[in-house]
């Protein structure tokens, strides 16, 4: 499976859709969602020059200079290069400590700037963004049910809710629960895995803000648009990456990806088959459900 050659910037798309019909907007969102899913499951060789350019821009956002890049063929090959780097538990412990010692690790700073970006993008959405505050039904204040999208719209579920469920949440289920979490669990068999980002599988949140912008439902400032474009470029060009102060370890995209539909899903979610990913060095983890 390979991604299309389309290279439109997520933050600078072609002319937004002008129709205000929720059903028409949803159909356009489905097409954009598929573009991003294709990028997330691409088996084309990494576009290393684009990836390094985008990573350098993200490092700059964290006030760090351009690192040295170490490319590897699989997450398994990255393990010897990232020994001793901070894990999620260690970063969480640092956050809980009232006065942590020393300079925050780079991974902590990148997590902060990424969170700030998502907050700024949500602030540019022209309707109350369910990403910030879940939209609930009228007097009962219960969460909106997750229905098949056309049925949801016909029953009065707001388009904003359907887009969040059908793009952001659906892609997260496909790419996190259906892909990188089981691969990471297989990798963690030899011990905790340091904090990383997932390149092409980070497309779930990038796609959401891209959809809103291309449908004319969000307006982003120049700085937010430029920052989003760096993350979008990564999602189109490489696999997982571990940020170190002096070196950034980056994984090429896999050689083979095989997925299957998630049973009972209403938004076309997919997941890896048990032996559904094989990397360029032959690493093919057995994935648990």
**Residue-averaged pLDDT, rounded?**
90
SS elements, strand count:
5
Biggest sheet, strands in spatial order? 1-3-2
Label the overall shape: globular
**For the terminal residues, how far apart are their CA atoms?**
22 Å
Which percent band covers the strand fraction? Answer: 5-15%
Task: List SSEs in N-to-C order.
Answer: HHEHHHHHHHEEEE
Helix-residue proportion: 40-55%
Main β sheet profile: 3 strands, mixed
Alpha carbon gyration radius: 19 Å
Task: Enumerate how many helices there are, as a single number.
Answer: 9
Secondary-structure-derived class: mainly alpha
Multimerization state: single chain
| Low-confidence parts | 1-9, 11-18
Structure described in brief:
The chain is mostly helical and 289 residues long.
């Amino acid at each position: 499976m390979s991604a299309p050659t389309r290279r439109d910037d997520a933050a600078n798309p072609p002319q937004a859709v002008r129709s205000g019909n929720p059903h028409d907007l949803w159909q356009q969102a489905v097409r954009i969602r598929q573009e991003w899913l294709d990028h997330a499951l691409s088996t084309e060789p990494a576009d290393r020059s684009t990836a390094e350019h985008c990573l350098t821009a993200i490092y700059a956002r964290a006030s760090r200079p351009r690192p040295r890049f170490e490319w590897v063929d699989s997450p398994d090959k990255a393990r010897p290069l990232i020994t001793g780097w901070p894990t999620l538990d260690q970063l969480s412990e640092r956050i809980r400590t009232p006065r942590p010692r020393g300079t925050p690790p780079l991974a902590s700073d990148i997590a902060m700037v990424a969170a700030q970006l998502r907050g700024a993008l949500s602030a540019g959405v022209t309707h109350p963004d369910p990403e910030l505050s879940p939209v609930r039904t009228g007097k009962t204040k219960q969460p909106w049910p997750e229905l098949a999208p056309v049925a949801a719209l016909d029953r009065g579920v707001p388009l904003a809710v359907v887009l969040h469920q059908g793009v952001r949440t659906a892609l997260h289920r496909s790419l996190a629960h259906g892909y990188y979490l089981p691969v990471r669990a297989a990798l963690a068999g030899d011990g905790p895995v340091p904090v990383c980002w997932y390149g092409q599988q980070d497309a779930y949140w990038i796609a959401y803000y891209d959809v809103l912008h291309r449908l004319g439902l969000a307006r982003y400032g120049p700085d937010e648009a430029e920052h989003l474009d760096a993350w979008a470029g990564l999602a189109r060009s490489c696999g997982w990456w571990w940020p170190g102060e002096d070196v950034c370890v980056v994984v090429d995209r896999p050689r083979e990806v095989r997925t299957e539909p998630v049973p009972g899903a209403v938004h076309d979610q997919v997941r890896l088959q048990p032996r559904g990913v094989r990397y360029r060095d032959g690493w093919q983890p057995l994935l648990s459900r």
